[in-house]
């Protein structure tokens, strides 16, 4: 590629809406351009990076036994109603009506479409297992698109779906895909961590997210520094210490005028916040449920959804407080609460010497004991883990870091096959639902995550495996005959070896060329400056480390060949 003939519209200034490095640098370097909120063009160099990532994904999927297909973007309403997700998916699904007044959705995911395909074409146990994947465009009407490619409305995704005879088969396929995903992210140049995750709208029982640690990550990860335990903070567990104990004193009602919050009441009573019982009122499918948590903890609604077994719940709003006037906002507590189901965090089992609302305006109770003064219908893990908590597996200390989700795998079971009638005949002729898994990688999201982990103040630093090309040739005075010929000779030699190279043949000042080269972030740079006129050697520079090597033509080619061969060794 000659830079004078390649569409690379670099910018000196960052776009006004760019909040993070990947968004800022991918736009400035001419890899992407914004069309509308959350929608982007991919320019030549940007598309080359995407294609490199796709190539790695295809190699690893094919190695794991998956087969590539292409599924439609437009999906009919009828099959989404079969799974029950047409109404549940909500406004994130972009919907349209065709000229025949038929409803369609622009695919945010493809579980229904693939299940329909397989149920129509696979019927015998002899045809299983089956593992299919695609790489294609997805649409999700994000309420707040932001961070460039990290939260876009239109994006490129690899999604895969497996069909097995039984749960054991699904688990084996899941493990194969888990391992393949690890290789994808490693080969893409990322540091990553697999964490236990919530299954959300996709469904199923077990799921892992693949997270790339980054300061701008939209997810928080809890992990143990002493064992392999790691989980999205939405799901992370932690070990509780023994219950807080008191001195067995009688319950005392204390006047707490105008004190409603945990901080206000605990300060007024001279107690640590952990000795307060926070009583949270939820409306769950139109019935009130009280959730008790220690005063220094926050309730985790993802965990609560699993306990409630429904997503139809919310914290009390003003109308709910009016509807249940015997529950007093700011003073509600479990003692004397009747006719309401109470669920408590495991940390409160057997706790004594606690304080809570007295169900009376401007009053709280102290010296409260669970079991003696109030009962509960169940104990469960309903709070968020946090830095410094105890690992639930080994007793080590949990740490918390931010991360970008780049992939997720799910054990679906019969979540889609059962309601959609995707069945096979077993050895005895009995009809059984296929047992499914689903596996996704955000391709364009991964591109942004790579930049988040690989950049400096001057620009992008692409790992060789996904770089738009391996070498950037910079003759600092292209009009000078010897430097021009040296650049052209190196360019021809690389092309003869089948390498796609970028030659900066522009009539620009050295400062402009260096600035653009830093911005583009191509791994190796062959500079042809004044020194070449003295010794006939190129200055081979490594973008990631700043290392500079004086080398003749053959040495530059050998160095690059060795680097590219190391990539093939990883395949």
Briefly characterize the structure:
This protein is of the alpha+beta class and 571 residues long. 27% of the residues lie in helices and 28% in strands.
Descriptive notes:
By secondary structure, this protein is an alpha+beta fold. It folds into three domains: 16-237 and 400-452, Bira Bifunctional Protein, Domain 2 (BirA Bifunctional Protein, domain 2), CATH 3.30.930.10; 252-380, Alpha-Beta Complex (YbaK protein); 469-570, Rossmann fold (3-Layer(aba) Sandwich), CATH 3.40.50. The chain is 27% helix and 28% strand. Strands 3, 7, 8, 9, 10, 11, 12, 21 and 24 form a nine-stranded mixed beta sheet that branches. A five-stranded mixed beta sheet has the order 16-14-15-17-20, covered by helices on one side. The chain has a five-stranded mixed beta sheet with strand order 28-27-29-30-31, sandwiched between helices. Helix 2 (44-63) packs across helix 10. The longest helix has 21 residues, at 167-187. It is globular, with a radius of gyration of 29 Å. It starts with 20 loop residues before the first helix and ends with a helix.
Characteristic key phrases:
Rossmann fold, globular, nine-stranded mixed beta sheet, BirA Bifunctional Protein, domain 2, 27% helix, 571 residues, alpha+beta, YbaK protein, five-stranded mixed beta sheet
Helix and strand arrangement:
Elements: H1 21-28, E1 32-36, E2 39-42, H2 44-63, E3 67-68, E4 74-76, H3 77-83, H4 85-88, E5 94-97, E6 103-106, H5 111-121, E7 130-139, E8 154-164, H6 167-187, E9 193-196, E10 206-213, E11 219-224, E12 230-232, E13 252-255, H7 262-269, E14 277-284, E15 287-294, H8 301-308, E16 313-315, H9 318-323, E17 341-345, E18 354-357, E19 363-368, E20 378-380, E21 398-413, E22 423-425, E23 431-433, E24 435-442, H10 443-453, E25 455-456, E26 459-460, E27 471-475, H11 481-496, E28 502-503, H12 510-520, E29 524-528, H13 530-535, E30 538-542, E31 548-551, H14 553-570
Helix pairs in contact: 1-10, 2-6, 2-10
């Amino acid at each position: 590629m000659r830079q004078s003939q390649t569409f690379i519209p670099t910018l000196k200034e960052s776009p006004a809406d760019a909040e993070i490095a990947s968004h800022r640098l991918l736009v400035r370097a001419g890899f992407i351009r914004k069309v509308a909120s959350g929608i982007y063009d991919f320019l030549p160099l940007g598309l080359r990076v995407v294609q490199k990532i796709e190539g790695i994904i295809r190699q690893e999927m094919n190695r794991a036994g998956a087969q590539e297909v292409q599924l439609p973007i437009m999906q009919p309403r009828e099959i989404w109603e079969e799974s029950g997700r047409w109404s549940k998916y909500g406004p994130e699904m972009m919907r349209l009506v065709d000229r025949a007044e038929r409803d369609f959705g622009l695919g945010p995911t493809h579980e229904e479409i693939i299940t329909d395909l397989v149920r129509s074409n696979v019927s015998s146990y002899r045809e299983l297992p089956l593992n299919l994947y695609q790489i294609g465009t997805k649409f999700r009407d994000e309420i707040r698109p932001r961070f460039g490619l990290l939260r876009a409305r239109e994006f490129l995704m690899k999604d895969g779906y497996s069909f097995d005879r039984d749960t054991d088969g699904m688990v084996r396929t899941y493990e194969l895909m888990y391992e393949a995903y690890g290789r994808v992210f490693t080969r893409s140049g990322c540091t990553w961590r697999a964490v236990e995750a919530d299954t959300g709208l996709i469904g199923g029982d077990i799921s892992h997210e693949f997270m790339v640690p980054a300061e701008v990550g939209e997810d928080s990860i809890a992990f143990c520094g002493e064992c392999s335990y790691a989980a999205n903070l939405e799901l992370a567990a932690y070990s509780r210490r023994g219950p807080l104990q008191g001195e067995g004193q009688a319950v005392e009602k204390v006047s707490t005028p105008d004190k409603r919050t945990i901080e206000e009441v605990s300060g007024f009573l001279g107690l640590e916040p952990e000795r307060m019982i926070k009583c949270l009122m939820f409306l769950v499918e139109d019935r009130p449920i009280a959730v008790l948590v220690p005063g220094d903890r926050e309730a985790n609604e993802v965990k609560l959804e699993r306990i409630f077994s429904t997503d139809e719940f919310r914290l009390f709003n003003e109308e709910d407080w009016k509807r249940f006037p015997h529950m007093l906002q700011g003073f509600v507590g479990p003692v004397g609460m009747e006719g309401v189901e109470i669920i408590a965090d495991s940390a409160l089992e057997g706790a004594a010497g606690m304080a809570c609302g007295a169900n009376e305006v401007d009053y709280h109770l102290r010296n409260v004991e669970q079991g003696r003064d109030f009962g509960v219908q169940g104990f469960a893990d309903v709070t968020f883990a946090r830095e410094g908590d105890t690992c639930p597996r080994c007793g080590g200390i949990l740490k918390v870091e931010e991360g970008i989700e780049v992939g997720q795998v799910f054990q679906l079971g019969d979540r889609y096959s059962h309601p959609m009638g995707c069945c096979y005949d077993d050895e005895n002729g009995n009809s059984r639902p296929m047992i499914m898994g689903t596996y996704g990688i955000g391709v364009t999201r991964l591109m942004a995550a790579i930049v988040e982990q690989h950049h400096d103040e001057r620009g992008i630093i692409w790992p060789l495996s996904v770089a738009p090309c391996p070498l950037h040739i910079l003759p600092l005075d292209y009009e000078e005959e010897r430097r021009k010929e040296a650049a052209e000779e190196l360019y021809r030699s690389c092309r003869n070896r089948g390498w796609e190279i970028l030659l900066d043949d522009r009539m620009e000042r050295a400062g402009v060329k260096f600035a653009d080269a830093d911005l583009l972030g191509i791994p190796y740079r062959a500079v042809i400056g004044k020194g070449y006129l003295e010794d006939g050697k190129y200055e081979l520079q490594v973008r990631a480390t700043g290392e500079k090597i004086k080398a003749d033509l053959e040495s530059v080619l050998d160095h690059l060949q060795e680097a590219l061969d190391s990539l093939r060794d990883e395949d």
